[in-house]
Design goal:
Elements lengths: L2 E4 L2 E3 L2 E3 L4 E2 L2 E2 L4 E3 L2 E3 L5 E3 L7 H9 L9 E3 L5 H4 L2 H8 L3 E4 L1 H11 L5 E3 L5 E3 L4 E6 L9 E5 L4 E5 L23 H13 L3 H13 L6 E4 L9 H11 L4 E8 L5 H15 L3 E6 L5 H8 L2 E7 L2 E2 L2 E2 L1 H12 L6 E8 L5 H11 L3 E2 L4 E4 L4 H18 L3
The structure holds flavin mononucleotide and fe (ii) ion (2 copies).
The site of flavin mononucleotide has 19 residues, from α8, β20 and β22.
């Protein structure tokens, strides 16, 4: 079945129903790799798909035009989920030109070691396809150095590459095919932002501001993963909010434990946060995947990170989580380490050092107990949780 965005513009991507691990990110809802075909005097393919999905993309193209008749390919992004199929596609299509950013050209060369007929485009470059015109917009580091977007002027369709995407396999291609977004879609949109785009909040705010200044109108946003937005306003507003680092009165207690002492403290902190009027969540690091936890971190105002001391160190899953979190450059959060120890007790200090390195607001020197917490220590943890909620998670 052909999927037409606007007359002559088609979705020709692939649906990856089974993927659950996307470079370490838990994709419990699968994904899609969206590619688009514009039928004009110059038939143009925007992006490709993951290598193993080329047959699916070719079959969809075949319903619309012979792949050999494609004249141009636009490569918005070098990453292999969008360019993995490029080699086979180029071999089959023999395009006149492949349009990409200057950095895209260099990096496609590093990936494929092939000198294809590249043509570099920059922000504002225009390309006539016949009746329609494309304008290119470089978006370096959103989220790779080569990243760019492509705008179909006449129809006001933005092919936004990874921005506004979500890992979500579904039989639906558009946001408005039912009155409501599919269940779980909004979560996957947020999860994608948290795991892929959180470090680029400032760049995204600048881009959204520029869009308003230039008076750019989007009738449709067509990202490279997930649904195509015929109503782009909600996703634009969500991005605005996330990019600004807006937080909710929500506290997260994230921990691991060997003999449950740190866990006892974790529960006491959660009780305290609730008593202090906050929304609280408890996440055990070997029960909830770190990509799901950072989704909750995105709009949380307070992070309490717990670890026992193991061999003079923090527990490995806590170190793993903090390493992942640090790379995502979380903003506007209060934070503190806590934990149980037996003799040397380094974990909490090490956690706090990491939190400080992330430039989070350290709200306490850290809460530590020797071996198993007693009722007074648990009461103190609860009281501290309540106090932190009142002070740092105001409604
Ligand atoms: C293999 C192992 C190594 C440990 N290494 C240290 C250590 O280097 N320094 C320390 O203070 N405690 C160390 N401990 C003690 C634990 O930190 C202590 O038992 C703590 O109460 C465990 O908290 P949990 O119940 O949350 O796992 C170690 C415990 C185990 C099992
Ligand atoms: Fe990407
Ligand atoms: Fe992608």
């Amino acid at each position: 079945m052909k999927v037409e965005l606007v007359p002559g513009v088609f979705w020709v991507g692939a649906i990856d129903w089974n993927i659950r691990d996307f470079h370490g990110y838990l994709t419990e809802a699968g994904s899609t790799y969206n590619a688009y075909l514009i039928v004009d005097d110059k038939i143009t393919l925007i992006d490709t798909v993951k290598k193993e999905f080329v047959p699916e993309m070719m079959a969809r193209i075949q319903e619309i035009a012979a792949p050999e008749d494609i004249n141009y390919i636009v490569s918005n992004h070098v990453e292999m989920d969008h360019s993995g199929g490029l080699a086979e596609t180029v071999h089959r299509v023999k395009p006149e030109k492949i349009f990409c950013s200057p950095r895209g050209r260099a990096d496609l060369l590093r990936h494929f070691k092939e000198t294809w007929p590249f043509e570099e485009v920059k922000t504002g470059s225009e390309l006539s396809l016949g009746r329609r015109n494309l304008t290119f917009l470089e978006t370096p580091m959103l989220h790779w150095p080569d990243s760019m977007m492509t705008y179909l002027k006449e129809e006001q369709v933005l092919f936004s590459s990874d921005a506004f995407g979500a890992h979500f396999a579904s039989s639906r291609r558009f946001d408005d095919e039912l009155p409501e977004l599919p269940e779980g879609y909004s979560y996957q949109l947020k999860k994608y932002y948290a795991n892929i785009l959180m470090p680029m909040g400032t760049l995204i705010s600048q881009l959204l501001k520029k869009v308003v200044e230039l008076g750019l109108e989007f009738k449709m946003i067509a990202p490279d993963h997930g649904l195509i937005y015929r109503n782009p306003q909600p996703v634009l507003s969500a991005y605005q909010k996330w990019a600004a680092g807006t937080t909710e009165p929500k506290g997260l207690v994230i921990y691991d434990t060997m003999w449950h002492s740190t866990e006892m403290l974790a529960h006491a902190f959660v009780e305290g946060l609730i008593e202090g009027g906050a929304v609280a969540q408890l996440h055990h690091l070997r029960s909830t995947h770190y990509s799901n936890i950072v989704t909750e971190v995105l709009d949380a105002g307070l992070l309490l990170i717990g670890s026992p001391t193991l061999n003079n160190n923090m527990f490995p899953s806590v170190a793993e989580f903090l390493t992942y979190l640090k790379g995502l450059k979380p903003k506007n959060k209060a934070a503190m380490g806590f934990g149980s120890y037996g003799w040397s007790g380094q974990a909490v200090g090490l956690i706090n050092k990491e939190l400080e390195a992330m430039q989070l607001r350290l709200v306490h020197e850290g809460f530590q107990v020797k071996y198993i917490p007693d009722p007074e220590e648990l009461a103190a943890a609860k009281a501290l949780g309540a106090a932190l909620a009142k002070e740092h998670l105001k409604r």
